[in-house]
Amino acid sequence: MILTFKINGEWVTQEIKPSLLLIDLIRDVLQLKGTKPGCLEGECGACSVIVNGDAINSCMYLAINVDGKEVTTIEGLENNENPLHQVQEKMLEHGAVQCGFCSPGMVMTTKAYSDKCIAEGITPTREEVKKSLEGNLCRCTGYAKIIDAAEAVYK
Amino acid sequence: MNFDVISPKTTPELLNAIYDNQSKNFRIGAGFTDLINQFKAQETEGLILINLAQLTEVDFKKISENEINFQIGALTTASELIDNKSIKENFPVLYQAANKLASTQIRNVATVGGNICNVSPSGDMTAALIALKATCHIIDCDGNERKELLSSFIRGLKKTSLTKKELIKNITIPKNFSKNIKSGYEKVGSRKSMEIAIVSLAYHLQMDDKGVITYAGVACGAVAPTIPFTTSACEFLTGKNINDISDSEKEEFAKRVLSYANPISDIRASDWYRKEVLFNISKTIFER
Q1: Residue B213, pLDDT score
Q2: Could you read off the pLDDT of A95-113 as tens digits, one per residue?
């Protein structure tokens, strides 16, 4: 099956087997290892990537369904002027990273949510920020700092 | 996992795919948040997946309204329901149920039709739709159409009335008679996020100007093999004034809701706990 889609700003065409999962396309075929395989059943959010503006779990998403769409992974957040995205800067400032395994997923979910809030001119409450991260688990128990960092994106 | 995928773009392509594969082992999927996990746990060699995610037909996707009904396409995601202002305003029970489902990442892909067809007793959007007396609009690959009330469409644990030739196109909900509503979705679990309900209660009451209940729809989740519409509890409320319900009437209502519960004990909770919780949350809807 032939798939054409945009990954981190670049169009690619790739032949894949129909049952391939998006996470395996990203990590094994495209060799982008920043997207993390955690629980692989949609609980932990470590594999979160952005498809057409929405955060999704790439472990439960068929690769063929990104055909014609735009996928952003953690590797797609850097550019020449800014090696780190604002969400990543805030996570560093607030010490929101311990082992780092959940961080790419946390960043992608927070980015998708903050893009929507900014587009709609909304400043979310702390409760809303927490809710936006409900699909991401951190096993180093660092939630307070992660939520602080996600909230600081709006300040 | 090793299965074949057919991705129809139009309704005729979809119906042909169903027709052509009648003699084969196929599954229909849209958001895949349940199906992928099922596929990982089973042998998928020889399985054909009819993938609805690339279907472009608006009838399957849009939320619209006419004079009597709201229509929700089966492929509407939980996030799209949450973002729809009319749904939030008219049917808080459905808005809350969609918003309490799993996580953002899952809500962005999980569909209403999938939640119904997964036929879980703890299906959040399904419980809300049963309380709202939703009707499923079903099409088949021979060109037939039929309608069935969601509460009768679900026949038992993991069983629906769908034949191998059919699928749900959309769901309709009758419009409110009144602007005066009391509507919500109570979900009890061991945590707020990523939780499958231990007990849930979907309620939608409509009152006239004086507060007299003219419509009551109450359904309870995760306490029986299906999600029952609690007819006798609803009949008990109809005609009473919402501002004037005594404590003993609240208890009687809760007892009637409880009469529909036949829970099991499982990894998440005991049957005793489920009944206690259902009784208590039923009493408290009047305080909310």
Answers
A1: 98
A2: 999 999 999 999 999 999 9
Helix-strand-coil percent breakdown of chain B, rounded to 5?
35, 25, 40
Distance, in Å, from the CA atom of B31 to the CA atom of B45, rounded to the nearest integer, reads: 21
What distance in Å separates the CA atoms of residue A48 and residue B120, rounded to the nearest whole number? 26
**What's the CATH superfamily of A2-73?**
Beta-grasp domain (3.10.20.30)
pLDDT digits (tens, 9 = 90+) for A73-86: 999 999 888 899 99
Asked if B105 lies within 8 A of A56 by C-beta distance, the reply is: yes
Chain B residues within 8 A of A21 when measuring between CB atoms: 1, 36
Task: Give the domain extent around B108.
Answer: 60-174
Nearest to A27 by CA among A67, A63, A55: A63
Per residue in B132-152, pLDDT tens?
A: 999 999 999 999 999 999 999
- What gap in Å lies between CA B31 and CA B35, rounded to an integer? 8
pLDDT tens readout for residues B193-209: 778 889 999 999 999 99
Is A5 in CB contact (< 8 Å) with chain B? no
Residue B27 touches chain A, beta carbons under 8 Å: no
The answer for residues whose C-beta is within 8 angstroms of residue A107's C-beta and 6 or more apart is: A74, A77, A85, A87, A88, A91
Query: Within 13 Å and on the Cβ side, how many CA atoms surround A108?
Result: 33
CATH homologous superfamily for the domain A86-152: [2Fe-2S]-binding domain (1.10.150.120)
What is the structure's pLDDT at B223? 94
What's the CATH code of the domain at B212?
Answer: 3.30.390.50
CA pair distance B14, B49, nearest whole angstrom: 12
Which amino acid makes up residue B208? Answer: D
Q: Is residue B247 within 8 Å of B284, Cβ to Cβ?
A: no
Q: Cβ of B224 under 8 Å from any chain A Cβ?
A: no
Partner A contacted by B89 (CB < 8 A): no
Mean pLDDT of chain B: 96
pLDDT range class, residue B257, cuts 50, 70, 90: very high
CA distance linking residue A140 with residue B264, whole number of Å: 35
